[in-house]
């Protein structure tokens, strides 16, 4: 059995051979990845159910189809992404070829997360393959069934010389990080991200971090409360809140809260019935450790549980729960909840809500529910977040044309669609020159004169740019 360093060395040898560079090789690997997902859909759904009790509907929508749609988009477009990007030129460079060339970085490491164990491994991998890299995958050991399936399927379908899966827990990941990679792509918690950055610093390895944070849902002004409740409940309790882009808490006026609560009760019963533990559409908490953490948060809150609160440790079940009378210093507001608990905080004005949002770290996503365009625009213009969506939740991340990523503490860098291709590419500045115009070039040679300086400034000015290729 190969050691981790032998795996990395094998992939680096393959990369240096140039095998991943041709467009046809990349296309073939992406097509094989598509076949892998389609051929093994039932096994994938079974693994996801074992790990998280994911309903078939949610597993297909958020895992299988997310990967398939991303593959279709990449296969249709990556050839154009590979083409040189020509830039405007000055008079002094008008006979030169000046362009940006996208080149693969080399051997990259992708570390996935347990909450969407298929999507969060293969979506970044698609960008890495399209860009021409060799890839080491490290799936999350917490989602053990999916991890095992990924390790089984990848070498069956993709090039063993260029792509590998490494399994294990924290110690194996630490050992893996001691190898030299050309890029590290990590999805997970801020705490683990810090250890990855420390390891990456030893080799000055660039890192993309897809983290999370407390994503607010600000409901303000005129709003369709019934529709808002449906979209909020779906976004929050999809995968039972174990989504980095799930609404983490609600901000609204006291009057809006009173109108919202009965609609939330009605919607939760409509979606999951009177006994959600018996509903097949309700996922489970991934592990006893995460279950215990969530129950401790509920035990510490000074807020009041008005909906849900039921739990079953053996089943790792926590009912969709709504908590009111929550203040900014409450236990529920100190960390990302990442579970089926929804605190509601009240604010007196639009400005107060914006101030509360800005007082916290920049979130991965920010949601505003309002019929008033001025409200949406005001929040958009006066806050910062990785992504922004009005009158819905989560859905912005399903569009390959939009970048997905955080800002500040919620993440560095982005991916999806072309953005993933760019993340795993080096944008190489290229200028191809001949020997013409040597007299013009002589303006930069000594002996320096004021006349030469004047002419040189004019020929190199952006005001005299030339778009001739």
TrEMBL record:
Active site: 210, 244
Keywords: NAD, Oxidoreductase
Keyword Oxidoreductase: yes
GO cellular component, one term: cytoplasm
GO biological process: aldehyde metabolic process
Domain Aldehyde dehydrogenase: 10-428
SUPFAM superfamilies assigned: ALDH-like
Record's keyword annotation contains NAD: yes
Family annotation (Pfam families): Aldedh
Top-level taxonomic group: Eukaryota
GO terms for MF: 3-chloroallyl aldehyde dehydrogenase activity; aldehyde dehydrogenase (NAD+) activity
Similarity comment: Belongs to the aldehyde dehydrogenase family.
Protein's name in the database: Aldehyde dehydrogenase
Protein source organism: Channa argus (Northern snakehead)
């Amino acid at each position: 059995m190969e050691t981790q360093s032998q795996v990395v060395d094998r992939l680096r040898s393959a990369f240096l051979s140039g095998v991943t560079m041709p467009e046809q090789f990349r296309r073939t690997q992406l097509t094989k990845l598509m076949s892998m997902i389609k051929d093994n859909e039932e096994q994938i759904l079974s693994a996801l159910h074992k790990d998280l009790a994911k309903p078939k509907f949610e597993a297909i929508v958020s895992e299988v189809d997310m990967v398939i749609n991303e593959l279709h988009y990449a296969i249709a477009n990556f050839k154009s992404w590979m083409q040189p990007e020509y830039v405007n030129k000055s008079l002094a460079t008008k006979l030169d070829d000046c362009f940006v060339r996208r080149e693969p970085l080399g051997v990259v490491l992708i570390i996935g997360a347990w909450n969407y164990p298929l999507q969060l491994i293969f979506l970044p991998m698609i960008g890495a393959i399209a860009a021409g890299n060799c890839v080491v995958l490290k799936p999350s050991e917490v989602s053990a069934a999916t991890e095992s399936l990924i390790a089984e399927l990848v070498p069956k379908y993709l090039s063993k010389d260029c792509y590998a899966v490494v399994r294990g827990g924290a110690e194996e990941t630490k050992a893996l990080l001691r190898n030299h990679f050309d890029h590290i792509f990590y999805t997970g918690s801020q705490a683990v991200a810090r250890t990855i950055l420390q390891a990456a610093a030893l080799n000055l390895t660039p890192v993309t971090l897809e983290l999370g944070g407390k994503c607010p849902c600000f409901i303000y002004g005129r709003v369709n409360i019934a529709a808002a409740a449906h979209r909020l409940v779906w976004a929050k309790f999809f995968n039972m809140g174990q989504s980095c882009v799930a609404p983490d808490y609600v901000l609204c006026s006291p009057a809006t809260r009173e109108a919202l609560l009965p609609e939330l009760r009605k919607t939760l019963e409509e979606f999951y019935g009177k006994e959600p533990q018996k509903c097949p559409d309700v996922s489970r908490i991934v592990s006893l450790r995460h279950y215990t953490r969530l129950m401790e948060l509920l035990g510490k809150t000074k807020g009041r549980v008005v909906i849900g609160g039921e739990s079953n440790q053996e089943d790792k079940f926590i009912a969709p729960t709504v908590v009111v009378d929550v203040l900014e210093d409450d236990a529920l507001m100190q960390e990302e909840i990442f579970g089926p608990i929804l605190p509601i905080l009240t604010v007196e004005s639009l400005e107060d809500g914006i101030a509360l949002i800005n007082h916290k770290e920049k979130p991965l996503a920010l949601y505003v529910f309002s019929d008033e365009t001025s409200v949406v625009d005001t929040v958009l213009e006066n806050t910062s977040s990785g992504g922004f969506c009005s009158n819905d939740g989560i859905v912005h991340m399903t569009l390959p044309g939009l970048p997905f990523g955080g800002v500040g503490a919620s993440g560095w860098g982005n991916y999806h669609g072309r953005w993933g291709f760019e993340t795993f590419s080096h944008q190489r500045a290229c200028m191809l020159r001949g020997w013409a115009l040597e007299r013009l070039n002589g303006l930069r040679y000594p002996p320096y004169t004021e006349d030469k300086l004047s002419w040189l400034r004019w020929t190199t000015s952006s005001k005299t740019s030339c778009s001739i290729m």
